[in-house]
Amino acid sequence: MELWQAFVQMVHTLIPWLDGTVANILIILIKAIVLVMPLMLVVAYFTYAERKVIGYMQLRIGPNRVGPKGWLQPIADALKLMTKEIIFPTKANIYLFLLAPVLAITPAIAVWAVIPFDEGIYVTNLDISLLYVLAIGSIGVYGIILAGWASNSKYPLLGALRSASLLVSYEIVIGFALVTVVMIAGSVNLNTIVQAQQGGIAHWYFIPLFPMMIIFFISALVETNRAPFDVVEGESEIVGGTHIEYSGMTFAVFFLAEYANMILMATLAVVMFFGGWHSPFEGIPYLQAVFAWVPGIIWLLAKTSFFMFLYLWVRATFPRFRYDQIMHLSWKVFLPITIIWIFVVALMTQFQLAPWF
Amino acid sequence: MNSEQIIFYILSFWFVASSLAMIFSRNAVKAVLFLVLAFFSAASIWILLEAEFLAITLILVYVGAVMVLFLFVIKMLNIDKSTLRAKFTGYLSLGLIVAAIIVAEMSLVLGTNQFGLDVFSSPARHGADYSNITVLAMQLYTTYVYPFELAAVLLLIAIIAAITLVHRNETSRKKQSISEQVNVQAKDRVRLVSITLPNKEGK
């Protein structure tokens, strides 16, 4: 941290234009690059992990040809997608057709700005970071809707219609589920929410909010268009949904956005319900001392990896839901449960239930 | 000119430009997208005013939900542009009168004599520990708690009214019961019948 402070000081003295505004923008850019570069690498290797994990679950080996044990497979895939031709449908609206992938990836990356990785490690400490996550996350649907409309093709339009109605429905459920977290933590700042969960596993919010945790995870599957709720793509019904007309790099950008969103949702689940950067051995006499050297970011990444694995596990296990069943699940099952749980949490607050209050 | 003013003028330019583009755009989907850009610019200007809760709410509610539903409806419409243009001159005189009245009213209400710098001083800057959302929540849930809840009840009435209007002919609608479908057993659907096959003589 001292090194970073010294670096910030140095940039400010080197570039004093406009009362340090230019230097501030430069520092924000450096932070963004430091965040986005590893994120893209994780996305690339998450696709490799997905193919390997699902491969082993289906008694196959998965990719094993490029590099030792197939480790270079994502690099080869990226190169292939970059060099492929981008095909534009003749009757497509070309500006909106190209704007759609940009609108998909921008919110998927912008949301990461407020995620706290460790005590004091974040791009920005926004006072309303949870609302920011919900607001920017809700913009991602424009990418899919525009892709469906601008392609001027029937299956993408159907996929976009499904996506729009699903995302709007499940955003409400996610919003209500996160209201309970805000009620317990007493703040919409993600940093404060994680700090409030300090003191060992018993203090993490997944215990008082267990149904909300399950609902959040299932809704996250829908929000990221993952199996078993991937009706937006639905290969067996509408060929490939909104992605049909996209090829090469334009498709790759959608792909990146989807996986960045999955990792984001896994991280959010950890931050909200599983204590963020806090060690699971806090408060346990002997183990706490043994694991004291592990930095908080390692715990966060380890917990996030578990949730990312859950995404793959779910995909390999469940068959696809029917569209009206997903809608039924949202409006008639999840929404009543979340509203009831808000009252339960209000009672918990009233009686100051230990150790969460 | 300091950096805040530069940012303000860039955002205002985008706000005005995207609003104009929204009106003059021929394509309905593009018009919606320009409106989204206008919302974003407005939200950014509010953030400059340290009203970050309002700004994020604008994006969350209008960009994230209302405009998505707008787009959802607009892209299903099959707009015939020639019929729209045929009525243009007919509506022009009425439209101009309405526009003139609105401009006059707005300039009277929102002009410098009501909101000028001599009436409203420029807002005071707060420190880094100032939390806009905490201050807003304290006001909303203490001083203004009854108007706030009244507004919430009004919205609830509107939702219930809309749903009742749609669900008037409850009995004539066909619908599927998902729980019934999921809980169906093989013996409810399939009946196995043993048949004795006739031999070659037909007996």
Give the topology, please.
The complex is a heterodimer of chains A (357) and B (203).
Chain A (H helix, E strand, L loop, with lengths): L1 H13 L6 H37 L15 H11 L10 H17 L18 H9 L2 H11 L3 H32 L4 H6 L14 H14 L11 H4 L9 H26 L11 H6 L5 H22 L5 H28 L7
Chain B lengths: L2 H22 L3 H21 L3 H23 L6 H6 L1 H23 L1 H4 L16 H12 L1 H22 L11 H5 L3 H4 L14
Helix pairs in contact in B: 1-2, 2-3
Topology as H/E string of chain B? HHHHHHHHHH
Total number of strands of chain A: 0
User: In terms of structural class, how would the helical and strand content of chain A be classed?
Assistant: mainly alpha
CATH class of the largest domain in chain B: Mainly Alpha
**How large is the count of helical segments of chain B?**
10
β-sheet strand percentage of chain B: under 5%
Q: List unreliable stretches of 5+ residues of chain A.
A: none
How many strands in all of chain B?
Answer: 0
Write the CATH homologous superfamily of the largest domain in chain B.
Answer: NADH-ubiquinone/plastoquinone oxidoreductase chain 6, subunit NuoJ
The multimeric state of the shown protein is: heterodimer
CATH topology of the largest domain in chain B: the name is Four Helix Bundle (Hemerythrin (Met), subunit A)
Number of domains of chain B: 3
CATH architecture of the largest domain in chain B: Up-down Bundle
Helix content of chain B: 55-70%
Look at the structure and give the mean pLDDT of chain B: 83
Largest sheet of chain B: none
- Round the mean pLDDT of chain A to the nearest integer and report it: 85
Strand content of chain A: under 5%
